[in-house]
Amino acid sequence: MSSPEPGHDFDPIAPETFTSAHEEFAEMRATCPVAHSETFDGFWALLRYEDVTTVLRSPSMFGTSVQNVVPKVAYTGRRPPLHLDPPEHTPYRQALNPFFTEAATRAHEPMVRQVTVDLLAPFIASGGGDICAGFTHHFSGHVFAEVFNLAPELAMAIKEVTVRYNRALQEADDPTVKATSLELYDIAAKVIEMRKAEPLDDDITSALLAKEYDGQPLPDQMVLGTIRQLLVVGMIAPSVFIGTMVVHLSENPDLQDQLRRDPSLIPAAIEEYLRLYTPYRGFARTANEDVELGGRLIRKDEPIALVYASANRDEAVFPDGDTFILDRPNIDDHIAFGLGPHRCAGESLARAMLRISLEELLARTESITVSGEVVMTRWPEWGTLEVPVSVEPRG
Ligand code: HEM
User: Fold this and answer.
1) Which atom number of ligand 1 is nearest to the Cα of residue 343?
2) N or C: which terminal CB in the chain sees fewer CB atoms within 10 Å?
3) Atom number of ligand 1 nearest to Cα 284
């Protein structure tokens, strides 16, 4: 299958089912672990855990500033921190990290639970529907409105635009992606204007505006890009991932009941779900000189997708990798949140959002059952776009 020259080893835009991409990844890990596709203007894909982590552990050799995702998104400017390499990347993480510590997340938990209940209760009371359209596509926008301390009018706007943006991005509806992307920029620009006029304590935008690098404030355009970046990366993964967990729970009613009986198992279940159903497969790097990986020559600046979703099922690291195993001994080795300088900034908030949504979903239902066709999302994510479910409300 593999050849020394770039060719077309796989087709990332072929229609997928819930299991097909992972079947293909397993085949490629065995036969063509450093693969090339001519789709999306040509890119490499690393399928094995060892190759992916080797790249992540060498940030000075493999950077994000040329191309950080496959397919390349036509973006309206550079969006820190993902689009920058250290040391330029560092001040943005320094400004953001205090807002995403475990303590900061604990402070957000009552709000996240309230948002979850407000969205889920009517969905459950009506007996279900598409949980993505009914819940997951709204969830992050509502949480972000609070995390960014948005005034009611902007909060309304962000809740509404993020739903349209989320869906359009996952359906590759480019005109809507562009239009909604600009709407998100407008919202971010308004937040900056407001915080410049009146900085708030304990506020992400105010902290970014106050941060200095080399004695200079961070440029306005880059603060704008950072807010935009947080909205995108923080929105899509929880959105595709919650539906995915629901599909697995529907197929495993015993596990549903076990987690209902003992919710203290939910964090471990989420960790194993993050490994098994890793929502990102297209974050990318480029090499700053020609390199050889897996016997193939990768040229400087050619995009290399790090297929986290495949690496996390690599049998060399995770025996019985296609199976859900609660309390897997080396679960901490999963790389669903990446590794190295670009490791997810929001992982503690993400874990809380996922845990609380599962806790509330299970506590408020007797059963959750997929009731129609599951529709999958597309590169660069892996997960669900539509999951019709019927739910039996509890008591
Ligand atoms: C299931 C949920 C999530 C998953 C699986 C996830 C995963 C990831 C991964 C794999 C990366 C690294 C990208 C790379 O290697 O190039 C990343 C970066 C990032 N994530 Fe998350 N993420 C999630 C939720 C969130 C949330 C809720 C936020 C914000 C509140 C967030 C903010 C970020 C930011 C800002 C970066 C860029 C970090 C940098 O470049 O330094 N993520 N995420």
Assistant:
1) 12
2) C
3) 16
pTM over 0.90: yes
Ligand 1 pocket, mutate which of 232, 272, 337, 357 (most atoms under 8 A from CB): 337
**Which parts of 144-222 are beta strand (E)?**
212-213, 216-217
Is 368 close to ligand 1, i.e. is its CB under 6 Å away?
no
Indicate whether residue 283 lines ligand 1 (CB < 6 A): yes
The tens digit of pLDDT for each residue in 199-243 reads 999 999 999 999 999 999 999 999 999 998 898 888 889 999 999
149-158 tens-digit pLDDT: 998 888 888 8
Closest to 137 measured CA to CA, from 387, 390, 395, 392? 387
Both structure tokens of 103: 């303590």
Question: Tell me, what's the pLDDT at 1?
Answer: 40
Residue type, 375: V
Pairing of strands 43-46, 304-306: parallel
Average pLDDT of the chain to the nearest whole number: 94
